[in-house]
Amino acid sequence: MDSATSEANPGTTQSASDRPPLLSTAANGLKIVIVGGFGVGKTTMVRAVSDIRPLNTEETMTRAGEGVDDLSAVRGKSTTTIAFDFGRISLNESTVLYLFGAPGQERFWFLWDRLFSGTLGAVVLVDTRRLDECWYAIDRLEAHGTPFIVARNDFGGPRHTAEQVREALDLSEDIPLVDCDARSRESSRDVLLALVHHLYALSTARTAREITP
Ligand SMILES: Nc1nc2c(ncn2[C@@H]2O[C@H](COP(=O)(O)OP(=O)(O)O)[C@@H](O)[C@H]2O)c(=O)[nH]1
Ligand SMILES: [Mg+2]
């Protein structure tokens, strides 16, 4: 089955054959990471926004994940990402954005040092029914000084206010919190745009500080 039109992507209509090859003029590569707990929608989001048929390393859940990956809140999910998702978006003729979906669980963080290097910023994807799963990722990103935003993936169910989510995550005012549906290309693109705006605001503030005598 074509992953671009799989069940995980009901909001995505683009087929793999519509997706353009990488232009030979592409000289600049930018990197963004999407991180989050198990089943928050990382693979779904990378698939939704990628120009190419994304690579991923979904593996059928094995006994190794039993009792470790909490399936109780993720009905119908029988696979778990053991390493990364990888997707690509061509921004213009010379610039390509690379997207990495990475597991936030503590046991995978040995993979992260390499991944962080050269990363522009990160999206922390959260499921508000299981907020505790992203604490570790937020903590690591803050410790590493990697800029990030938080995107709340909509799985239905009870809605929390933005203030409640901020308080539960102990999120400071200057970190954007946005809502999304990872299955939708438009919504996932808006999440990436929110991150880019945040990065731009941070860099403008830094420049202003540098030129202030
Ligand atoms: N209702 C709903 N389901 C979603 C959404 N995003 C992902 N899912 C489903 O949640 C499950 C887990 O998503 P997946 O992308 O595999 O999570 P990952 O472990 O973070 O890569 C899949 O069955 C998705 O189809 C969403 O925004 N809304
Ligand atoms: Mg996944």
Automatic annotation (TrEMBL):
PANTHER family: ATP/GTP-BINDING PROTEIN-RELATED, GLIDING MOTILITY PROTEIN MGLA
Biased composition (Polar residues): 1-17
Name under which the protein is recorded: ATP/GTP-binding protein
Domain of life: Bacteria
SUPFAM superfamilies the UniProt entry points to: P-loop containing nucleoside triphosphate hydrolases (SSF52540)
Region (Disordered): 1-22
Pfam family, one: ATP_bind_1
Family annotation (InterPro entries): Gliding_Motility_GTPase, Gpn, P-loop_NTPase
Keywords: GTP-binding, Hydrolase, Nucleotide-binding
Family in the record: Belongs to the GPN-loop GTPase family.
